[in-house]
Amino acid sequence: MSEDTKKLDLINRTIDETAKELLKVAEKEGISTAFNRAAEIKPCPIGQKSMCCKHCFMGPCRITKKTPVGVCGADVDTIAARNFGRMVAAGTSAHADHGRDMAFILLAAARGETEGIEIKDVEKLHAVAGHLNIETEGKTKEQIGEEVALKFIEDFGRQKGGINYIRRAPKKRQDLWKERDLVPRGLDREVVEMMHRTHMGVDQDPKSLLHHALRTSLTDGWGGAMLATDLSDILYGTPTPIKAKMSVGLLKEDEVNLVVHGHEPSLSEMMVVASQEPEMLEYAKSKGANGINMAGICCTANEVLMRQGIGSAGNFLNQELTILTGAVEAMVVDVQCIMESLADVAKNYHTKLITSSPKARIPEAIHIEFDEEHAMTVARKVLREAIDNFPNRKKGAITLPDYVSESIGGFSHEYIKYMQGGTYRGSFRPLNDAIMDGRVQGVVGIVGCNNPRDVQDSAIVQLAKEFIRRDILVITTGCGGIACGKQGLLAPETMEHAGPGLREVCEAVGISPVLHVGSCVDNTRILTIAADMVAEGGLGDDIADLPAVGICPEWMSEKALAIGCYFVASGVHTIFGVGSPVEGSEKVTRLMREGWEQDVGGKLEFVPDTKEIVQKAIETITKGRKALGITEYVPGKFGAEKVLMDMADRRRLEDEQKAKAAAAK
């Protein structure tokens, strides 16, 4: 293959046109990115299929036809199940730790020990207190907040019983978990037990190991991640639909560009506030800038997008490329999905890489540690670092693609409920009815990462378009949501891709057929939506009865596996693209597909081919509809054309309802 062909092939590893433009810059400047490293580094064919064990120093043991068992006698089935269990434990830990941090920040805010952070959404606080059986009558928001925080903190060290939020699942699902001994105890306990079980010489039954992997993952979906979502809403506001720009093209040549990257919302929320302070704007002008422009990468992007309307420069595989624009004064990172290579890329430009978490340091990066007690002070310090760096830009080294898409994000579970019935009669009845009468065939969640061993964003976008064309509502989060946004699928104009039934429903409500519901931890919003659809009635009495599928087309992280497992344990058929981390074990593969379906009603499959993913998802949705005995959509069958409402109409209605409520008081 010639050099020119190699370059062309590298550029074709993404459908993001701005990424292609910046990959040409990387090639010209000789700067390494994840794209070319993935092309150069071939994955170990044994390790990739989980046919390798390095859990003790008698190994690592490579399982082949010649050596079918390790030194201890463990076969490929045990090894694959152990490796998978450890990946689930790591992914669960990431979200549990995120949730723990949010609980302690709420506790500090309730006790008046934070700077700039306070309880913002009292209505959400009361709702969460209700889930936890905490009395609110006659108490201040600070008193309630303290009780809520302490109740959540108990869940981490709980030794017996079940974590608090398990009770939010449908009753039938809770009973099944009890029957199958899957109710998670403390978040820390399940992770520790998973690590113990996978130690050399402990659990050697693949079925037993995978069973505990499901229980561990439930502490993520109905534990750490769900409480992280709720606590973020309480502290920073529950999202409502908001416009934002997407793609690296939103960076500005005449302003200080500050990029936030990672997953935790606290510092980035404070930085949004600080960036709008008159003294900070004046300080930026004193350095020659016309303003301060914030943008996000990965799930920190989703957090500030859905609450503040801050644009996203891109998802996981855009992080290095964003620095390659030469226009980024500072990239501030916290935890998860942050490439160590950022420091090397930044050396080629004036960009300052700043770490902010005590858990995540990068050699050669500046470390400015965030703590809630001095939240605004830290935010201003970081912002000044970026502003001071503006005059250091390299002349002639700026490449800013001119493409930017408009997106609407921030469809929280609460807003989806409101938009179907208003403030006083919010419900999921319209969506349930649309599914039952066939206008909407079902719901698909498209979530997750990018993987440089696949074409960036391609599978995510192809699947979203294919499903809405078939009258299937798409709900998206994380890097999957950003992929859809960059390609214009999070705007009402997406309606042109939708089938007639889905289009009718979405136009009536004034929404896109692809709904952005948040970051990685906000996959729990999808669980909450599913539980409320069940509670609304007409679509069975368990999440497993819904005509719904979960898909992670371009996965790469351990968190993705933990998310996939908690959806399976909740009764959802879940499909991953790219490839299987347990491909070397037919038994483990079968247990995840057939054994889990028999035990919990959900199953996990790894399907690299996008067309096959569509086929399997359609089969599951069709099977679910038949089991419920609900009809198929026939155009024109359901009477007169409906009067359509756009988003502006709905906002006017909301204002009128609030005015009436205020007058009534």
List keywords for this structure.
Rossmann fold; six-stranded parallel sheet; alpha/beta; 16 strands; 3 domains; 665 residues; Substrate Binding Domain Of Dnak, Chain:A, Domain 2
Per-chain topology:
Layout: H1 3-11, H2 17-29, H3 34-40, E1 52-53, E2 61-62, H4 76-110, H5 122-131, H6 141-157, H7 171-179, H8 187-197, H9 206-236, E3 242-246, E4 256-262, H10 266-275, H11 278-286, E5 292-297, H12 298-308, E6 312-314, H13 319-323, E7 330-333, H14 342-346, E8 352-355, E9 366-367, H15 375-389, E10 405-409, H16 413-419, H17 429-436, E11 442-446, H18 458-469, E12 472-476, H19 478-486, H20 500-509, E13 514-516, H21 523-536, E14 548-552, H22 558-569, E15 573-576, H23 586-600, E16 604-606, H24 610-628, H25 647-664
Parallel strand pairs: 4-5, 4-7, 5-6, 7-8, 8-9, 11-12, 11-14, 12-13, 14-15, 15-16
Antiparallel strand pairs: 1-2, 3-10
Helix pairs in contact: 4-6, 4-8, 4-9, 4-22, 5-6, 5-9, 8-9, 9-21, 9-22, 9-23, 10-15
